[in-house]
Amino acid sequence: MPDDRLRISSQIMIPLKEIEVNAIRAQGAGGQNVNKVASAVHIRFDIRNSSLPDFCKHRLLALNDHHITGQGLIIIKAQQFRSQEKNRDDGLNRLRRIILNAMVIRKKRKKTMPTQGSRIRRLDRKIRRGRIKTLRRKPDDE
């Protein structure tokens, strides 16, 4: 893998200059370095101005993901690890997974109908259940 590109698939690679990576201070407990070291990473990727193929851009923009803004930006905050390098790699892997997830073409669901036998069995169960419930009732005083 070349150092200046992020490999998405065998055919798709993104130049790292299209991905904006900023170091920020992580939230939460962090010990003595919490207020001094910027170990978390903020990753911003502009879908519309990227070198991705058009079909991939359209699928990403149509994706219902909380990382994708209305302006077509993917924003990822990686702060799981204590080192900036690990957080950067984690953020880039998450970006790769989002793009790969958008490129997967889901199979259309075929509408099916229940078989005649399953319908009859269902109705028989309903009738049997109804009979059980009628037997539980108090007898009528006639």
Summarize the structure in words.
The structure is a single chain. Helices cover 35% and strands 18% of the residues. It has 142 residues and is of the alpha+beta class. The protein has a domain at 5-103: 2-Layer Sandwich (Double Stranded RNA Binding Domain). A hairpin with a 5-residue loop joins strand 1 (5-7) and strand 2 (13-15). The radius of gyration is 28 Å and the shape is elongated. The model has no long low-confidence stretch (mean pLDDT 86).
The CATH class assignment of one domain is: Alpha Beta
Low-pLDDT segments: none
Strand content: 15-25%
- By CATH, the topology of one domain is Double Stranded RNA Binding Domain
Number of helices: 3
Biggest sheet statistics = 3 strands, antiparallel
Query: pLDDT average, as an integer?
Result: 86
- Sketch the topology as an H/E string, one letter per element: EEEEHEHH
Strand order of the largest sheet: 3-4-5
Structural class: alpha+beta
Helix content: 25-40%
Morphology = elongated
| CATH architecture annotation of one domain | 2-Layer Sandwich
How many E strands? Answer: 5
Radius of gyration, CA atoms, in whole angstroms? 28 Å
